[in-house]
Amino acid sequence: MEKLKLLHMYPNMLDLYGDSGNVEILSYRCRERGIELEVSTHMIGDRETDFTQFDIIYLGGGADFEQQLLAEDLLSCKDKIAAAYNAGSFFLMICGGYQLMGQYYKDSNGEKIPGLGLFDYYTSASTDKRCRCIGNIVVETEIDGEKYKVIGFENHGGQTVNVKSPFGKVLYGNGNEFESSAEGYTEENVIATYLHGPLLSKNPKLSDRIISYCMTVRQGVKYLPKPLNDKLENDCRKQLFERLGV
Amino acid sequence: MSIKNAFTIVFGKLMVKILRLLGRDAGNFPGLVLWTVNKDCLKAFKVECPIIAVTGTNGKTSVTNYLSHIFSSGGKKIITNPQGNNLDTGICSLLLQHCDMKGRVKADYLVLETDESHVPVVYSKLKLETLVLLNFFRDQLDRNGEVETLILKVKKFLETFEGNVVLNADDPNVARLGLANPNNKNIYYFSVDKYSGATDKPYEVGEGKFCPFCDTELVYDYYQYSHIGRFHCPKCGFGKVKPYTQIKNVDLSAPSFEADGETYKTAHNSIYYMYNMSAVYSAAKLYKFDKSVLRDTFEHFEVNNGRMERFEIGGSRLLVNLAKNPVGANMTLRVMNEQEGSKELLFVLNDNLADGHDVSWIWDINFSVFKDVDRVITSGTRAYDIAIRIKCSGYDPDKIFVYPDLDDAMKALFSTVGEKFAIANYTAVQPTRAAIKRYKNSCERTEEQNGKA
Known about the structure:
By secondary structure, chain A is of the alpha/beta class. Chain A is about 30% helix and about 30% strand. A nine-stranded mixed beta sheet of chain B has the order 3-5-2-6-7-8-11-12-13, sandwiched between helices. In chain B, strands 14-15-19-16-17-18 form a six-stranded mixed beta sheet, with helices on both faces.
């Protein structure tokens, strides 16, 4: 049986808004293709984690309080995480995870949490806690040269700027900042986004892009995932796109 | 009374009377108008009886109904909001309906379900005697803000509060609030002894795994459900309290529990129901209600408002339960799994304002525990989301049927005869009950017609 390895970072702290569902969805879609997704975790204080051995490194979103608690541990892993990134591990990061990989995050209490600095973007939140981007969101991204609508739910106070290569163009909702045209950050082996939902639940092609990338790296030849029965997902997308008028 | 407050009451009473003449149900509206005219309108009411407020994420409506039933025993007059309406404007409307032209509210007790985020605003203006705090879970995060923000709001209120606080010792999010005002001696913890379904490891995701006083990871002897259980902080000792009420010998098969040496039979048998009863027992004990009243209430009283409500239709049995968050849904799934034999599940999911527009909480429900579930039917404005969620837990997608329309869903659900369970979220629960009743009536009409033929 083929195997992929996923590292879930701080699952006990970064698990707001059902984000752990992304791991469940990746496991499900791997299993249906005869691939075992082996899930490991990295928690605060784990000194032995070898980041480079993982195909996927995953961080979900968390509350300000939890982000502060884990910032120090994250920084202590900086070199090892950068090594995994350079070696081609796939990075999937949601909301708080997205923010923490940038230069810094200034939270809603005005406290500056240093980021890992893997990317150039940085984030500040308004100190008015009610000032948040909240609601359904649809962005248009590109997968294998084809446009693909990604639907989710955003809920963030942080406004992220200096984003060189956004994940998608906003069709409905706010994105990186209030009423911005761009959402998230992406590279060949990076998807960083504010989308909860969880992200992969209604966007099966996005899950498959991640699985294809990892399998292609493993096998050295282009991996084409077997189509699955996505009737529920497709019906759901159709219904919501109609409702939101996109 | 100030002239402004006197005017507020007269104006409000007139508004309620006019609405009644027009044949309208007043609802939240008069309170909303009053609040707009006078931000301090709650101060215009003169309440001389004790006010008991119930707050927390899950179980507010049930506990409020149980307490109202007990507090009205012996012919006492109570004023309560049994259907929710638990925001500042709802409570304002309620008082307006029950006061005289001078704003006097006459009753023996006010028992008020109160939304967590509205506790400070309401009870900075009305004199609260007892606050019952049940639990804090993730609930409608996009509307309320993160759980921590909510806890801090209630904490701030409690820092200067000197009345009774009845609170759950087994929920770290709640227990910490017992220390909010070190000068308040009227702190009454309730706790439930380890029950047969308790686990060593958390079974579902929860909040509050770190000590709020020193950031150390909390240590649990056992988990009852979600993050509720016997916990303590290994560094500063947070969590070690002496409860006012210790519920013992929870027996889910009887079902019954023991308190202060006496056994009480109950109408339902889940652990979260036992925690609700523990809160009810503690508040009733504080007001010295007779044990015979409690015994009768625990054994026979039913809220029947989509809270563990039972229906029988054409040979099928259906249990309907509200679930606004993962903890509520997980509890219904537990009850479902504890029942032997095959069964079917209906899940109705809406994403209206009062539900919170974000439905991602369904991914924190643990569906991998499904046992002997033959078929799943989903309905509501987000019927597909919940269908996808159940599918990705590994359940056969060919056994999942999506009917966004509730009447279609009922027809499908009752196309077979057997044991059924329904989970509905906040705005879905009343439409679901209505659809069940419509379906039941249409069956009975058909039977009558067949009988005549």
